[in-house]
Specification:
With about 110 residues, the chain is an alpha+beta fold. It is built from 3 helices and 4 strands; from the N terminus they run βαβββαα. Helix content is about 20%, strand content about 10%.
């Protein structure tokens, strides 16, 4: 099992989760984070740290977010690892909870 970053992270990109990850499995894109499923050890530390509630255990992934499992796997091979918390985008709070953000994902 792995943990998965889902749609609500897009344009919010809070990095609170990154600091608690003991295996550095987070990767950073322009406006989204992903988890490398091959590196994730299912420690559960990241999920409660996400202010946007955008991280799910693979087994708890909502059906409408299931495609994010594959997206996390693919983008984690392209994007660099992030290990330190950064300030969120200035408009992160405005984007938190907005639906249909997948089209806004920057690769």
């Amino acid at each position: 099992m792995t943990f998965v970053v889902t749609e609500n992270c897009i344009k919010c990109k809070y990095t609170d989760c990154v600091e608690v990850c003991p295996v550095d499995c987070f990767h950073e894109g322009p406006n989204f984070l992903v988890i490398d499923p091959e590196e994730c050890i299912d420690c559960t530390l990241c999920e409660p740290e996400c202010p946007a509630n955008a991280i799910y255990a693979e087994d708890d992934l909502p059906e409408e977010q299931a495609h994010f499992l594959e997206l996390n796997a693919a983008l984690s091979k392209e994007w660099p690892v992030i290990t330190e918390q950064k300030d969120p985008p200035p408009d992160a709070e405005e984007w938190d909870g907005k639906p249909d953000k997948l089209e806004l994902l920057e690769r």
